[in-house]
Write a structure and sequence with these properties.
The complex is a heterodimer of chains A (178) and B (151). Chain A has 5 helices and 7 strands. Chain A is of the alpha/beta class and 178 residues long. In chain A, the strands form 2 sheets. Chain A has a 5-stranded mixed sheet. Chain A has a two-stranded antiparallel sheet with strand order 1-2. The longest helix of chain A is centred in the first third of the chain and has 23 residues. By secondary structure, chain B is mainly alpha-helical. Helices cover 70% and strands 0% of the residues of chain B. Chain B has 6 helices and no strands. Classes of the chains: A alpha/beta (178), B mainly alpha (151).
């Protein structure tokens, strides 16, 4: 009889644990189906040089970071100093995808906050972004030497994400390649 | 006020009308059905048909383009899933990682029915098996109640 009385408590316990886990999950972070697959190939004009194109093949050969940003994106501003920190470490090049922006706006934004990118592809209509499954800027991909997507960060990178996720993952991928 | 409400009622109609023309009514019907089945990832409670977010507009544009190119519904869904994952479908596919989602409610229902029937049977069995001692006790209680009723 006493054991039976514990059943509701047990059910409550299980539910409480499930709900506690559920509360910690961010429903806006949708796992990317691209993880473990090559980044979809694209060619787009360069932001700074409209007559030149940028091809995703240029990123193959070393561990690299692809950051999707826009001048109208407030969290991108928040993220920018941490991207600058990452660039200053010099462990992996950062490539930019200027997403649904006006060329002059994107360039003015970079002039104001600093250009941390090795090269920037210009995607005014978000067609490249669509192929990459971008649904909210900023988004950041980490690619291995073969151009395979190994990690995707959705939303702005903050100090903790840079320290605990981005940098360790890049370093691990670099070691993996040696 | 009434006019405003009427105007607001017209907004969805205008939104659909503004989406561009199809060659056949079948294509338009497919477009409507597909855009109801695809989730907008920015505003997750809405289908891309209901949403006016930029992303939803882009996805609708892609759906329309692919329909006009003559692609099948399955191809269009595959295109979306390849980019945004199963989450983009309102009706997720049945596979190992979604078994709990698909069958969990039925497991719970069956579990509940089993528990209920076991409890009901036990209760029934209990009512039948009244021992002599219990009968005697019952009689005493009832008599006692009678006496109090008389007083």
């Amino acid at each position: 009889m006493k054991k039976k009385a514990l059943i509701p408590l047990l059910i409550f316990g299980v539910l409480a644990v499930l709900l506690a886990v559920g509360l910690r999950l961010d429903p806006h972070t949708v796992p990317s189906p691209l993880i473990g697959k090559p980044l979809p190939a694209f060619t787009a004009p360069q932001l700074h040089a409209p007559e030149q194109t940028f091809s995703s093949d240029e990123m193959i050969g070393e561990v690299s970071v692809v950051n999707v940003f826009a001048s109208w994106c407030i969290p991108c501003r928040q993220e920018h100093p941490y991207l600058a920190q990452l660039a200053a470490r010099g462990i992996a090049p950062i490539y930019g995808l200027s997403y649904k922006d006006r060329r002059e706006d994107a360039r003015a934004w970079l002039a104001r906050f600093g250009d941390v990118y090795r090269a920037i592809a210009y995607d005014p209509e978000g067609r490249v972004g669509l192929d990459l499954g971008v649904y909210g800027v900023p988004e950041t991909f980490i690619l291995d030497r073969h151009g395979v997507v190994r990690y995707k960060h959705i939303g702005p990178i903050d100090a903790a994400a840079l320290r605990d996720e981005i940098v360790p993952r890049i370093e691990r991928l670099i070691r993996e390649g040696q | 006020m009434k006019r405003l409400i009427l105007l607001l009622l017209l907004v969805p109609a205008l939104a659909v009308a503004a989406l561009g023309e199809f060659e056949t009514p079948q294509q338009e019907a497919r477009y409507r059905a597909l855009s109801q089945q695809l989730r907008c990832l920015v505003c997750q409670g809405q289908s891309i048909a209901d949403s006016d977010a930029d992303l939803a507009k882009d996805l609708k544009r892609e759906v329309r383009r692919m329909i006009l190119e003559g692609r099948t519904d399955a191809e269009i869904k595959d295109f979306m899933v390849a980019r945004y994952g199963d989450f983009v479908l309102y009706k997720p596919p049945v596979k190992a990682s979604t078994y709990l989602l698909w069958f969990g409610p039925f497991v719970l229902l069956i579990g509940g029915l089993v528990t209920w029937s076991v409890l009901a049977r036990r209760r029934q069995a209990g009512s039948e098996a009244l021992s002599d001692a219990e009968r005697e006790r019952l009689r005493q209680i009832l008599d006692g109640a009678d006496r109090r009723g008389d007083a």
